[in-house]
Amino acid sequence: MKIRVFFYLIGLFFMGLGVTFTIKANLGAGAWDALNVGLSKVIGLTVGSWVFVIGVILMFINAFITKGKPKFLAIITILLIGFFVDFWMLVVFKNMFLDGMVKQVVSLLLGIFFIALGVSMYLQTKFPANPIDQLMISLHERFSLNFMVAKTIGEVVALILAFIFQGPIGIGTIIITFLIGPIIQMFSKPVSARYDLLLKR
């Protein structure tokens, strides 16, 4: 159980860090994060608060896709993700401003790395998934899509919504939209192998 909780919490911790790096890169955030930032600027509330609100909405959408019941335990996951995002954004990196394209690109790439690693880690635990990642799983289960395709579909939908709400869309958004799925796929096997090895100890 300790290993499961460790992977779960560290995975969400890394996700929050990755989201912050992609936003701070100022090259365009990931589609869902761009949506949350846009909603934060247009309506108010923190980015982390919108992570929670959008997550709750997606819980019901996922239930509709799978023709099942909403996974209400996922509220714990989205609360933690929202908390970690606000922790990194408003406490640790509140005054971080990147000057120069090299620093921005490095920040973007670090963000993609940590998001993909975080998703791969916490999904191993079988604890309630972030509704955004559950959308990927729901599409995978309902339509037999691989994770790369399912993740990309969700990202494109979020990209359209982010555009509507004037979120920070840029070249970084496009890069994240089409790279995050394949990188999660790439991390899945080695992370799963490490997780299984630790469980056997």
Automatic annotation (TrEMBL):
Q: Which Pfam families match?
A: DUF6198
Q: Where are the transmembrane segments?
A: 5-23, 43-65, 72-93, 105-123, 143-165, 171-191
Q: Which InterPro entries would you find in this protein's record?
A: YczE/YyaS-like
Entry keyword Membrane: yes
Out of the domains of life, which is the source?
Answer: Bacteria
Coiled coil (residue ranges)? none
Q: Which UniProt keywords apply?
A: Membrane, Transmembrane, Transmembrane helix
Entry protein name: Membrane protein
